[in-house]
Specification:
The protein is globular. It is built from 22 helices and 14 strands. The longest helix has 25 residues. Helix 5 crosses helix 21, helix 7 crosses helix 9 and helix 16 crosses helix 17. The protein is an alpha/beta fold. A five-stranded parallel beta sheet has the order 7-6-5-11-12, sandwiched between helices. The two termini are 33 Å apart.
């Protein structure tokens, strides 16, 4: 049961409907029929301008941050405590519970480090605990600190004042959460995510990249990065298009007959063309010839390729519409014209070597090389990624590029970034800008602990998975909400069903595998989207039934945190800029 029977949909209207996208995003996605990471000190690079590594103030650049304000107080104290020690930066972190016990809200951990620097000098200190006590004694007077104590070898534990916390929560309530957003020292960033292959259905394997990538893009947008590009680097080029085009011509001699409805199931179309390719020598020859004609720009073949891309794009849109995800498409084919020039630049820098007929690039710490050009003179994924990263840094002027793929591609991107550092196209300091980051994630598993598949051992289509989540929610709602309209049932089942799938993915550590389980996702108890939506609806119902003017209470009321649990909840709210920082992902 979803436990929503007590709620009327009219009192449920505060639930956001799934973000509405244009009826067809094909026009928006056709920037071309074409796909965020960490990078380096200043080098002699003609193509990138290196910024200094982030300073302490860049860590969480938000004056509302509790940690930031404590850092400022401890900075004053440290300068007074050890005036002769230069460059002592405050080491302040939020405290974590140990065996259910927590000795403070935050902790300053400088005492031991300072002792190792001053031991043997005539300072008057006899060990880390004495330094810790001196740090406390030299703290400026502040309303935010309730108490401080020294624990163990000089750790300074801080308890934040409940009155100060209450005032902070009141400001958050008045000013809005947007004003508490973390701020980043970049203006242009890109998240490269989702990235399905043309002519293949989006399946459950694309779920995590799409959800995590969209979340990272939202975090960057919330953090006020001026331009956040949501890039869909689709696989729209390669030898497989030869067999697809040959099969298309075989089934539809008249190109005007080609449409999404005519092709039907794209996955079945792909499989049928593969069977012909593997079992018919004459068809295989036509397919190989089709690749040559496509790559040479033959109009008829380019048009057929575009038709296949359009059908795929329409299928992708069905998933993105359901998930409320926005993407700008720029696939592999877009970067083809740039590959020779980028390889020539790398060759002139002395990075490219000949190896067993192929042209390769070696990078530090990896035994295998990057194959930039295959033995037969053809290009591969690395060729495209070298060109696309060069384009993003030089043409799009991006300061932060984040790639969201499964952990299996970690080495690929590590080698890519190292090649650019070796070329001087990324700074050697990985925390300097421009930088590249690979965000990896684990697999989605079935109940058997293997990759999630259907009963027929087929990869589960993502659109089918989302529709099943909605169907289950709708069944539960129909059993409980007898007086709801069909439109209300549809909207609510979509909000809960799609939200449940998203939340189940995001609530776990992104690096671990997780078992896909509809019953757990749609449970109205525990750490699920359904419970959170239900709790939100109940809170809104309480507010509505109170008959109070909330805006007037916000202006004239006062928040009082008498109970310790209330204080901890208030502090947790104020820590939003710290845990919500995109670097913490």
């Amino acid at each position: 049961m979803l436990g929503l029977g007590c709620l009327n949909i009219n009192r449920f209207s505060h639930f956001p409907s799934p973000p509405s996208l244009p009826p067809s995003r094909s026009d928006l996605l056709k920037v071309a029929s074409r796909r965020f990471a960490l990078a380096v000190t200043k080098t002699q690079s003609p193509v990138t301008k290196t910024q200094s590594p982030p300073t302490l103030s860049d860590d969480i650049d938000n004056p509302a941050s509790v940690k930031r304000q404590l850092v400022q107080l401890f900075d004053v104290s440290l300068k007074t405590t050890v005036p002769d020690e230069q460059d002592v930066l405050p080491l302040v972190e939020a405290c974590t519970s140990k065996a259910g016990v927590k000795f403070g809200d935050y902790q300053c951990n400088n005492a031991m480090g300072i002792w190792s620097q001053i031991k043997g000098k005539q300072t008057g200190f006899r060990g880390p605990p004495a330094i810790g006590q001196a740090i406390i004694n030299n703290l400026p007077s502040s309303e935010m600190i309730d108490s401080c104590s020294v624990a163990g070898p000089g750790f300074v534990n801080v308890v934040v004042s409940k009155k100060w916390i209450a005032q902070g929560v009141q400001r958050m309530l008045m000013d809005g959460i947007d004003t508490w957003a973390p701020r980043l020292p970049v203006k242009r960033a890109m998240v490269d995510f989702s990235s399905p292959n043309i002519a293949k259905e989006m399946h459950v394997g694309h779920l995590r990249s799409t959800i995590i990538g969209d979340t990272l893009a939202r975090m960057l947008e919330f953090s006020r990065v001026e331009a956040v590009i949501r890039r869909n680097h689709v696989g729209d080029w390669g030898t497989q298009f030869g067999m697809l085009i040959a099969y298309l011509f075989e089934k539809f001699p008249n190109p005007e007959d080609v449409s999404e409805a005519a092709i039907g199931d794209l996955q079945a179309f792909y499989k049928a063309s593969k069977v012909r390719f593997d079992n018919d020598a004459e068809f295989k020859q036509r397919a190989q010839q089709a690749v040559i004609l496509l790559q040479s720009g033959e109009i008829k073949y380019r048009k057929a390729w575009q038709q296949i891309c359009d059908v795929s794009r329409a299928e992708f849109d069905k998933v993105y519409q359901r998930l409320g995800v926005r993407l700008e498409e720029m696939g592999e084919s877009f970067y083809n014209p740039y590959i020779p020039g980028v390889l020539e630049k790398l060759d002139k820098l002395g990075l490219i070597e000949e190896s067993d007929g192929a042209r390769v690039i070696y990078v530090e710490g990896v035994n295998i090389p990057i194959i930039a050009v295959k033995r037969d003179g053809g290009y591969n994924y690395f060729s495209t990624d070298l060109a696309s990263l060069w384009y993003r840094l030089n043409k799009e002027k991006l300061e932060w590029i984040v790639y969201v793929t499964d952990v299996g591609q970690q080495q690929h991107f590590d080698m890519l970034f190292k090649a650019f550092r070796r070329a001087g196209w990324l700074p050697r300091d990985e925390n300097a800008y421009p930088k590249c980051t690979h965000i990896g994630f684990g697999l989605v598993l079935g109940e058997d602990g293997k990759r999630f598949r259907s009963r027929s051992s087929e990869v589960v289509r993502l659109v089918d998975l989302l529709d099943e989540a909605k169907r289950r929610c709708k069944t539960a709602l129909l059993a409980r909400a007898k007086d709801w309209t069909e439109e209300e049932i549809e909207r609510t089942s979509e909000a809960i069903g799609y939200g449940a799938v998203k939340y189940a993915d995001l609530k776990i550590n992104r690096l671990t595998n997780y078992t896909f389980n509809f019953d757990q996702m749609l449970n109205d108890k525990g750490n699920t989207a359904v419970y959170l939506l239900y709790a939100h609806a109940r809170i809104c119902s309480i507010i509505r039934k109170s008959g109070k003017d909330i805006e007037e209470i916000k202006r004239n009321g006062t928040i009082v945190l008498d109970h310790e649990d209330e204080r901890l909840l208030g502090l947790h709210l104020l820590q939003f800029p710290e845990v919500g920082h995109v670097n913490s992902f």
